[in-house]
Design goal:
This protein is α+β, with helices and mostly antiparallel strands. The protein contains two helices and six strands, in the order βαββαβββ. β2 (28-33) and β3 form a beta hairpin. α1 runs antiparallel to α2.
Length: 109
């Protein structure tokens, strides 16, 4: 038994969950926030047998594509009399970060 944790963009979450549920995967959705952009992410948690991991990862890889986005980033100020000045920056969002962890014991009660 393995535990798969996938951190994905909020926009991809419900579509991926629908596909995984259709394929028989049980998925738990957690709201999370990224550190750099402070933007909403979704963390999906799924307990699966080792044989099903390639299919699960393939589904996530196909549906979670990276894309470019313009966002405002505040520049650092030099002293207290100056203020933050936001400026646009192009960043890559989306994609997925996937962790596959060993599960020592599993009980569903």
């Amino acid at each position: 038994m393995k535990l798969v944790m996938a951190i994905i963009h909020d926009e991809d979450a419900f579509h991926i969950m629908d596909i995984l549920n259709e394929k028989g995967y049980s998925v738990t959705k957690l709201a999370s926030t990224g550190g750099f952009l402070r933007a909403g992410n979704t963390t999906l948690i799924c307990g699966v047998s080792e044989e099903r991991i390639p299919e699960l990862v393939e589904i996530i890889e196909k549906k979670c594509k990276s894309r470019k986005q313009i966002t405002s980033v505040n520049s650092m100020h030099i002293n207290s009399t100056e203020s933050y000045v936001p400026y646009p920056v192009e960043v890559t969002v989306g994609g997925a970060t996937i962790f596959v962890l060993n599960v020592e014991d599993f009980k569903k009660v």
